[in-house]
Amino acid sequence: MFRLGTLGFAGLLAATTAALAQTPTERGQYLVNSILACGNCHTPKTASGEPILEKELSGGLVFNTPAFDATASNITPDQETGVGAWSDAEIKGAITHGVRPDHGRLAGVPLAAVMPVNFYKAMLPRDLDAVVAYLRSVKPVHNAVADPVHKAPVHREAYPDAENGFTEAALRDPIKQGAYLVTLGHCMECHSAWQRGVSDHINGFGKGGRQFAPTLVKGFPSTWEGAKARNITSHKTAGIGAWSDADIKRAITLGVRPDGTRLKPPMDFASYAKMTNADLEAIVAYLRTVPSLE
Ligand code: HEC
Ligand code: HEC
User: Fold this and answer.
1) Do 234 and 289 form a contact (C-beta atoms < 8 A)?
2) How far apart are the CA of 107 and the centre of ligand 1, in A?
3) Confidence band (pLDDT; 50, 70, 90) for 49?
4) Residues with CB under 6 A from ligand 2
5) Which atom of ligand 1 is the closest one to the Cα of 111?
């Protein structure tokens, strides 16, 4: 199933060379602002859902669920209100295990389940280093966000590919690279069937159906109204199995369907548009392997 055809050997070589030429900070900037889309939660938004860029990553969406009320934290290097006083290992612990350091603000309080660490735990060490390097390089913004309120123990659904993990060697296969990116983008957190408040990656993998209710986010952006995640399995009619590669890439990066209709957020098309073509091709190659479900 190794399909080099879509990428071409030259493309693969160019992508590999580009990755090698990047510094960790550049790699982190690329990941955070494209597939990881950390700002989709951590950057504050206007009423219509546009990111407020001068306050980038300084604290964003306020989530209210039966299990918790939580505000996406200030993850700029501000010493007092951001993560400036945390060590690299402490920042990594928050991203991949959902734990806070045992000192300072909210010492030891776990991160609410909406922070997708069950996906981020799959991050390769080199990429995790890169993300931390980039977070340290952004403009510190002083902005204290509200403390979380936990109403139930933190529960996250295991994501099979993140549990199994990835290796550098495996990612030379574009389909595995696509699986890795789809994991980091936590695509299936929205796109797997939503059952009793969690994503069902076992019986409803990629099947769609999750609805984004106005009660989930404080000041629910008007542009999100009525958003319901769609079936992105390889099913020919219910899913995207009959779409061309270009159709799939256009939906992911521009939020436009093959018939020209517009897709609604919260999917972060503008961040995904910053992905390299090689990464987009890898995602398409992987999505073609997602078992057909109706
Ligand atoms: C779906 C929304 C969402 C996304 C996407 C997201 N986060 Fe978070 N994150 C949160 C929320 C909400 C909290 C706070 C949880 C709490 O207070 O219990 C949080 C907390 C954190 C913290 C802890 C900081 C502190 O001071 O408590 C770090 C570090 C962090 N996120 C980094 C990241 C990075 C890096 C990314 C991208 C790789 C990311 N987050 C993507 C929602 C998100
Ligand atoms: C925060 C939730 C969320 C995340 C994360 C997300 N999506 Fe989506 N996606 C949606 C919603 C909601 C829609 C449907 C919007 C609409 O119909 O207006 C959608 C639509 C799509 C579509 C169009 C399908 C169709 O039939 O029109 C594709 C393709 C897609 N997503 C792929 C992805 C991929 C690949 C990723 C990860 C890189 C991803 N999505 C991440 C919520 C999300």
Assistant:
1) yes
2) 15
3) confident
4) 182, 185-187, 189-191, 227-230, 232, 240, 248, 251-252, 257, 263-264, 266-267, 272, 283
5) 18
Closest by alpha carbon to 162, among 118, 129, 112?
A: 118
CA of 135, nearest ligand number? 1
Mean pLDDT of the chain: 93
Which ligand is nearest the CA of 154, by number? 1
Count of alpha carbons within 13 angstroms of residue 198, beta-carbon side? 13
pLDDT of residue 216: 92
Least confident residue range of 27-36, 139-148, 195-204: 195-204
What is the spatial distance between Cα 61 and Cα 43, in angstroms, rounded to a whole number? 8
How confident is residue 79, by pLDDT bands cut at 50, 70 and 90?
very high
Q: What CA–CA distance (Å, rounded) separates 180 from 174? A: 10
**Which one-letter amino acid corresponds to residue 177?**
Q
> Rounded distance, CA 263 to CA 285, Å?
22
Q: Is the pTM of this model over 0.90?
A: yes
Q: Does residue 111 have its Cβ closer than 6 Å to ligand 1? A: yes
pLDDT, residue 261, reads: 97
Residue 27 in this model has a pLDDT that exceeds 70: yes
Give the closest residue (by CA) to ligand 2 atom 25. Answer: 230
